[in-house]
From TrEMBL:
<keyword id="KW-0255">Endonuclease</keyword>
<dbReference type="InterPro" id="IPR005537">
    <property type="entry name" value="RAMP_III_fam"/>
</dbReference>
<keyword id="KW-0378">Hydrolase</keyword>
<keyword id="KW-0540">Nuclease</keyword>
<protein>
    <recommendedName>
        <fullName>CRISPR system Cms endoribonuclease Csm3</fullName>
    </recommendedName>
</protein>
<dbReference type="InterPro" id="IPR052216">
    <property type="entry name" value="CRISPR_Csm3_endoribonuclease"/>
</dbReference>
<dbReference type="GO" id="GO:0051607">
    <property type="term" value="P:defense response to virus"/>
</dbReference>
<dbReference type="GO" id="GO:0016787">
    <property type="term" value="F:hydrolase activity"/>
</dbReference>
<keyword id="KW-0051">Antiviral defense</keyword>
<dbReference type="InterPro" id="IPR013412">
    <property type="entry name" value="CRISPR-assoc_RAMP_Csm3"/>
</dbReference>
<dbReference type="GO" id="GO:0003723">
    <property type="term" value="F:RNA binding"/>
</dbReference>
<keyword id="KW-0694">RNA-binding</keyword>
<dbReference type="GO" id="GO:0004519">
    <property type="term" value="F:endonuclease activity"/>
</dbReference>
<feature type="domain" description="CRISPR type III-associated protein">
    <location>
        <begin position="16"/>
        <end position="197"/>
    </location>
</feature>
<dbReference type="Pfam" id="PF03787">
    <property type="entry name" value="RAMPs"/>
</dbReference>
<comment type="similarity">
    <text>Belongs to the CRISPR-associated Csm3 family.</text>
</comment>
Length: 238
């Protein structure tokens, strides 16, 4: 069994430049209601499932290499994100991505007029199919999105085992973050949704030594996160 040597915590913020759609489940059909809703917690607050964010990052790392399935992923990605599962899988998952939570206080500050909202923490967008013969819109449907300008707080945990290359893992994550900013998160990315920005990244670590966890000095690794470290003007860009 591999020995765990340290645990790294990566915290940051995710800013929505455009509306963000992470699909949810609908228990009933409402006349005149939303056709496609978003996922929310028990309080009715939208959130980003850790599985969605982790899966998107892994998928983006696969594209430049042409890896069409998880079984084709390179060693560094497999070591970082884990195997494909199953009873025969012995691969260790090192990266754990928690559900990202909406910054409710900031949301209420930036969107103070609840009467202008379609829902408490979301908006609706109507999409149509264009008839190529007539040029007319038809078959409208209404989708729900988190509005542009919303901010989510996210946290990731990285387990490091003996002989692991922490620098390589962090470089890989940095590449994934940058790819995400040039891509989209969630659904309907080809139709305007899901442009995001990652910022205010913080890196902290604890190492296991002498049967206790002690603080790590990670200064040598923080330079690679510098491009994501500074706060941004948290306003929707025109």
């Amino acid at each position: 069994m591999l020995k765990l040597t340290s645990k790294i915590i990566i915290k940051g913020k995710l800013f929505c430049h455009t509306g963000l759609r992470i699909g949810g489940n609908k228990s009933s059909l409402e006349i005149g209601g939303v056709d496609l809703n978003i996922i929310k917690d028990a309080r009715g607050v939208p959130y980003l499932p850790g599985s969605s964010l982790k899966g998107k990052l892994r998928s983006l790392l696969a594209k430049p290499n042409g890896w069409e399935s998880i079984k084709m992923d390179g060693q560094i990605v497999t070591d970082l994100f884990g195997g494909s599962g199953g009873k025969d899988s012995k691969l260790i998952t090192r990266l754990f991505v928690r559900d990202a939570t909406l910054d409710v206080a900031k949301f209420n500050e930036d969107f103070p007029d609840k009467n202008k909202r379609d829902f408490e923490y979301s908006e609706t967008k109507t999409e149509n199919v264009i008839n190529r013969s007539t040029g007319k819109a038809q078959h409208p449907r209404t989708i729900e999105r988190v509005p542009a300008g919303a901010v989510f707080n996210f946290e990731m945990m990285l387990d490091i085992y003996e002989n692991d290359n922490l620098k390589k893992f962090l470089e890989t994550l940095t590449n994934a973050f940058e790819l995400l900013e040039y891509d989209y998160l969630g659904g309907h990315g080809s139709r305007g949704s899901g442009k995001v920005k990652i910022y205010s990244l913080e890196l902290k670590g604890k190492k296991w030594a002498n049967n206790e966890l002690t603080d790590m000095n990670l200064n040598e690794y923080t330079e690679m996160f510098k491009k994501f470290a500074e706060p941004i003007n948290e306003k929707v860009q025109a």
